[in-house]
Please model this.
Amino acid sequence: MLTSKRLILAHFWLAFAAFAGALLLGEWQMFIRSPLHAWISNPEWYYRSVTGHGTAMAYVLPTLVAMGFGYFITEAALKRPLIGRAWAWVGFGLAVVGTITAVIPVALGAASVLYTFYPPLVGNPFYYIGVVLVVVGSWIWVALMSVNLYRWKKDNPGAAVPLAMFANVAGSYLWAWTSVGAAIELLFQILPVALGLRTTIDAGLARVFFSWTLHAIVYFWLMPTYIAYYTIVPRAIGGRLYSDSMGRLSFILFLVVAMPIGVHHLFMDPQVGGGFKFLHSVFTALVALPTLLTVFTICASVEIAARLRGGRGALGWIRALPWRNPMMLAIAFSFVMLGFGGAGGLINMSYQLDAVIHNTQWITGHFHLIFGGAIVIMYFAIAYDVWPHLTGRALECHGLIRAQLWTWFIGMMVLTFPWHWVGILGMPRRMAYYDYTDPALAPQANWVIMSVIGGAILVLSGILFLAVLIRGHRAPQIDPGPYRFSVAVHQPRRVPVALNSYGLWLSLMVGLTLVNYGFPILHLLTTPGTDVPAITVGAQK
Amino acid sequence: MTHDHEPHGEGAQRAERIERRWATLSVGIVALLIVMAAFAGIHQATMPQPVLETADPRTLHIAGEFTEANLGSSLEPDGSVMVRAIGQQYSFTPACIVVPVGTPIAFRATSADVVHGFLIDGTNVNVMLVPGYVSTIATRFETTGERHMPCHEFCGTGHEGMWGRIRVVDKATFQEMATRHRRLSCVDQ
Model:
């Protein structure tokens, strides 16, 4: 039933091309600031690279994967062609043009502001315009997801929306709303300055708007991964999904509580008061809930697969799992990294513990483990699973795939564990150089070298990943048959309206955002004297 | 979760029971974390600054509490110490802060240009300096010695060189310094 294969492949390939380039930049950065390399003669190169790495990994890769996978789900789960394919190509075109528009000023060193923008630093306007174009392209995707679901519901009144599509559309709505924060910051604060229309900017307010996007964007990155947990993994390892409705509930919880928590990124900032920081801390704790529920449901689903394969005993069933199956490896690795990364996240959640590690290398380690580890390893698994259906060719090199997943997991552990540790030792983030001859920094040197090795393993793994996909385009043709999502043990034919639609949850999402962000934003807007002069980067000196 | 299952048998009910038990446990874990954070905040008085204060980076050097002559450490009438500092591309002023050991210290700091970070190694002093706003944080040092004070937020090319220091001296030394100068930094020692 897949009719938009070229469209979906185009999205995946743009995502993975950006990923490959950014991966190399990342490892170069690890090396440059390690004791293995002396002083970089021009530190600007380093910040240029960090800007490129962050922009590609945080905006291009996950957005394009979510879009491509979203179109795939629409056709495979609703079992009908995508409505509005021409518009989807327009969205893709905007993402391509946006990526190129953003990359050029970054490569020229005219926008080394890092992907988090950091006003009052202001770079070349084309960098921000490029990012906006990628986001606008993704908004077309959001609209298409909504239209496709609406039309399907009209044709299938009362039927349960397939879980994959239900989650996919929830993710698109989450993205639409969370991207509004950064869009406001870019369109109304930064771009007017970058274009020379204004000379001042409220840096504190800009940070608040960015935090609106900055946390829920992580859950947008996470959506394809969680969709794979629920709707691909149980089928791929020969089991059943333990509970369809728990899946729906988890995605709804993400929709509602992922948004109003971003101020935990501003715990140490002077422009938001203590009360709202505590409120956001509470909601940050709540967002652990859908993950805890998911861990249970997926572990139970995996156990079902093991018992169907003859596994016995309280823990003996683990041995009966299909460990040579790439999806089994991916889910296991993903869960281990989610466990460590999630535990780290619970530490970041409280102001008191965050004070120890805020803006140290701990944070960089944390989000690489969660995003680069737990989330991206499932992007690989998704690609492996859908590739035969997109290319009509077999993906037979299972040994290579296993090696790729193992190296990604090991590389990520070797990269991020020392990273967390030097963070606790107080090593600050985002620096082109550290003086390891200083007695206070000397104990960090070997740990940093270990991270460089972890990064090298990840580069190797990234090459393997691309090799597997490219080989997949040249393999013998097969008929992969219709794509199947997981079936629940008790597959529902109908579900309650609340678990089949979004109205209530979207109003809660918007309402909670307004409650948790309304006052801090209004307060800053009405406080005089908060605008400060912009500082241009990349200008001729 | 009751709905129109096909085989709505005993198995389904049992599955739901286990599920509900886990959900309850999860809510319990989350509630416990929130209570712990609230308790730590109130009991150990570690809370973010309560109020918003502004400072114009364009006039910091001309008037107000962040003029150059007013930066550094000062002994307050109640025996505590107030430290005023600013961050700018790519240094802190004072570049080396001096404080006495075992004394309540209050920092007031801001930025003269872009966003900077203010972190003191081996302590919980960790705050952002956002231009336009005043950051405040309180602490107390229990041991003497010198610590690093790096800027931990990207502030432009040159960020990697922005490392301040903080020197914790014994109380008598600080008292003696305070009799000679109104505002102190390491150069006064």
Observations:
- Residues 1-47 of chain B form one domain.
- Chain B touches chain A through 74 residues (CB under 8 Å).
